[in-house]
Structures are given as C-alpha cells and as structure tokens.
Amino acid sequence: MRIPKLRKKLLLKITAAALALGLVLTVIYVFFIEPNRLVVKEVTISLRDWPAKLENLKVAVLSDLHVGAPFINSAKLQLIVSKVNQAEPDLIVLLGDFISFVRGGTVVEPETIAENIRGLRARYGVFAVLGNHDWTYGGERVRRALEDVGIRVLENDVARIELNDQAMWVAGITDAWTNRADITGTLKKVTDESPVIVITHNPDLFPLIPARVSLTLAGHTHGGQVIIPFFGRRHVPSEFGQRYAAGHIVEENRHLYVTTGIGTSIIPVRFRVPPEIVILTLTSSHSTAR
Known about the structure:
By secondary structure, this protein is α/β, with parallel strands linked by helices. It has 6 helices and 14 strands. It has a 6-stranded mixed β-sheet with strand order 1-14-2-3-4-5. The longest helix has 32 residues, at 2-33.
C-alpha cells in the first residue's frame, strides 16, 4: 500500500512544480515578452461610396505610444518609425496618448517624444489628435512639440487633402474625457462633399458620429491589454464595455476601427493583445463586389 501513496505524493509534487513553473513563465511573458513585441497588422476595409480615385488608400494608424512605459524608449520609437515608413503609407494618423503614467515607467518630455518620431513620412502628411494622458500632462505643450516637428495636430479641426485630383478631409475630434469634443462644430468646417475620415482618441464618441463620415479611427482601449482564456478581455476603459474594444466595428453602415495601440497604461502588462502598428487599406465596397 505504501507504493501507491508514494506515487500519489510524487504526482502531486510534479503537478505543483508544473503549475509553479507555468505561473512563472506566464508572469515573464505578460510583463517582459509581449509588451516588448511589435506587430504590423494589415487590414482592408471596404467602404460604401468610397471614390475610385482613392481606391487602395493606405493609412498607417498609431496610438497610445505611452513613451516612458517599459520597453517604449527612443530605440523602440525609431523601430516604429522604420516599420511605418517601410509600409509607404499615403497618410499617417497618431491617435493620442504620447505621454505615459504607468507603474515602473518614467514620464518623458513631449519634445523628446516628438524628436524621436519626426522621421515619420507619408505621401499626404502626418496628422494627430491628443489623448487623455496628453491633456493631463499638458495638452498645449504636447501639441506644440508635435507641430514643431511637422506633425499637424487636429483638435476639433479639419484638414483638406488633394489626392489624385480627389479631395478628402481628415477631421480631428479632441479627447472625450479630458477636453470638449465638438463633433458638430468640427464637421461644419468641412466645406464640400468629399469623403471624411474622423480621427479621435476615445472610441466612445462613435455613436455620435454622423453617417456623413466615411470612417472613424480611435485608440485608447488598448484592447483591454489582457485577454484571459474563457473570460475575455480583462478591462476596457469605455462606458460601452466590450462594444468598442478593438478592431473593425460596423453600426448602421458607419465604420469604426479601434487599434489596440503600442504602449501600456496603469499596469505594464499585455497578454494576447500585442503592441500593434495598423496599416489600413481603404477600398470601395462597389469595386469589391465587382
């Protein structure tokens, strides 16, 4: 009878050791491996009535750099710039939260951040909005730093672009949490019927975006940063819960894309939500149907 008991004790010890090892490896992965990853995600979105002259427009989407968070330093920013430029985008949009307030990180001055991303290149320009962390730090200083390196910041403002003899608009709506987001007033600045892409930090504004807008781009959520098997996303900072957590969302023929961003917020962990650069290719649903 003693042999089975010994085997049982040995099995329990092996099981406990395996669980302990698994826990250690998981901690290493979520704190040190996945937050340091960087994936380039290519996504095609088909839009109704998207002009033929803008067919296959390529938009690089970056959000939530949170510079100063673990692994988000000058070297990482230079890598991001290199990967974005390799994609040869027509437009680059930066969706806010350049500044970081995260455990284990440091606060990096916006001038240093701007200097490290000034190398971003796109055929028709680089545009940005600010996020809640930026406004908490000092939005006007962050704005000046970005504009000093040639990045156009659109806070409740618009920019008109001519592409292949076809006009389009980029409309930037300020952060919904820390500033006064003026959707109506901003879109009144659009003076013709050309397509409009709205960029904003927080996707919670999406239900208020009119159908006139072809596409809304947002960040802020980090995709919850952690997806636990069988339980889903750990926490999404949105009054809509999981509704606008990540990816391409279509509601009443209106399109939203939410990127999960690059840095981390509050706790520097990621699990099954790797840092991402998103390269969107915009096509007409009519041309796709053909």
